[in-house]
């Protein structure tokens, strides 16, 4: 079993603090870990849900912002990002050696019998997290260069999947991974839709439909948040279809923008959706 092999590997190599090691070993049992977590969330114990929200959460990021985590060529230290992530815990971005990247099998996809493919689409960035993942999941992860990491992001964007930046208390209270999420597999998105939890925050942007929309429906078909509907309108006395954004549902991921063949959808800043997680802009403002 991969978990037993990982456990043996950890016993030989582990040099981190005991709490992180224990968590890492549990997380090494990728599918089992999330299946248990899902069952616990179903119990509807509010105290546990609050704990999960505060210690394990994410923010949606556009493709352009996601790529900045991969391409930034210097160490970054951003702490207490209250304006970006209004949580008590896990809100720092401390990137040491951001060119040190590992791709590993998505834990959410691994726990499904018919997951979206491919499954190795989660990117861990910087130290010590890359070494930690390699230690605890040596058979489900591999090191990649920045070019391959960017390729993974772009291919997932083409599949209509949402880029998310994850923060976790067990990972030193800070950012550690860029994931590529879909509502059919992602437990974080499931927590939002089914359990009404605040595990996932909007990007800070909102989609806007341009006047030349022909109502083809591609944007609505690919929206992971069901935030776009196709409606009938009258234009100069003629009835036609047009896409309509439901503002309260839009997370500003940009999937609809990339799927619009007419290039008729754009993202605008929306203060009601929070502050974008753009590490270069945030670094300049410090």
Shape: globular
- Cα-atom radius of gyration: 20 Å
Q: What is the overall number of helices?
A: 12
**Mean residue pLDDT:** 87
Sheet bearing the most strands, described? 8 strands, mixed
Approximate helicity band: 25-40%
Question: N- to C-terminal separation?
Answer: 47 Å
Number of DSSP-assigned strands: 12
Secondary structural class:
alpha+beta
How many domains, in number, for the residues?
2
- Low-confidence residue ranges: 13-17
Element-level helix/strand string:
HHHHEHEEHEHEHEEHEEHEEHEH
> In percent terms, what proportion of residues is strand?
25-35%
Task: Give your account of this protein's structure.
With 286 residues, the chain is of the alpha+beta class. The chain has two domains: 2-203 and 274-285, no CATH class; 205-269, Alpha-Beta Plaits, CATH 3.30.70. 36% of the residues lie in helices and 27% in strands. The protein has helices spanning 2-13, 18-28, 30-42, 46-55, 63-71, 107-110, 129-136, 146-158, 187-193, 218-222, 255-259, 279-285; strands at 56-61, 76-78, 93-105, 120-127, 141-144, 162-168, 174-181, 200-201, 205-209, 228-235, 238-245, 265-269. The strands form three sheets. Strands 1, 2, 3, 4, 5, 6, 7 and 8 form an eight-stranded mixed beta sheet that branches. Strand 10 (228-235) and strand 11 (238-245) form a beta hairpin. The longest helix has 13 residues, at 30-42. It is globular.
């Amino acid at each position: 079993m991969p978990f037993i092999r990982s456990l043996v590997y950890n016993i030989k190599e582990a040099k981190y603090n005991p709490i992180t090691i224990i968590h890492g070993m549990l997380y090494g049992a990728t599918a089992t870990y999330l299946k248990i977590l899902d069952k616990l969330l179903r119990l509807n114990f509010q105290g546990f849900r609050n704990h999960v929200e505060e210690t394990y959460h994410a923010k949606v990021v556009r493709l352009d912002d996601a790529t900045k985590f991969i391409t930034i060529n210097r160490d970054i230290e951003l702490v207490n990002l209250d304006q970006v992530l209004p949580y008590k815990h896990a809100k720092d971005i401390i990137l040491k050696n951001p060119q040190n990247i590992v791709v590993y099998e998505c834990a959410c996809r691994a726990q499904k019998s018919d997951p979206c493919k491919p499954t190795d689409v989660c990117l861990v960035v910087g130290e010590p997290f890359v070494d930690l993942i390699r230690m605890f999941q040596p058979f489900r992860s591999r090191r990649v260069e920045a070019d391959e990491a960017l390729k993974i992001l772009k291919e997932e964007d083409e599949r209509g999947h949402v880029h998310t930046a994850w923060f976790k208390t067990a990972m030193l209270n800070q950012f550690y991974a860029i994931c590529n999420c879909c509502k059919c597999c992602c437990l974080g998105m499931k927590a939002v839709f089914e359990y009404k939890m605040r595990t996932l925050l909007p990007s800070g942007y909102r989609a806007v439909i341009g006047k030349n929309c022909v109502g083809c429906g591609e944007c609505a078909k690919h929206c992971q948040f069901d935030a776009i509907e196709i409606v009938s309108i009258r234009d100069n006395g003629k009835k036609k279809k047009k896409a309509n954004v439901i503002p309260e549902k839009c997370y500003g991921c940009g999937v609809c923008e990339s799927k619009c063949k007419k290039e008729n959808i754009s993202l605008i800043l929306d203060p009601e959706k929070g502050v974008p997680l753009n590490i270069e802009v945030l670094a300049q403002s410090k």
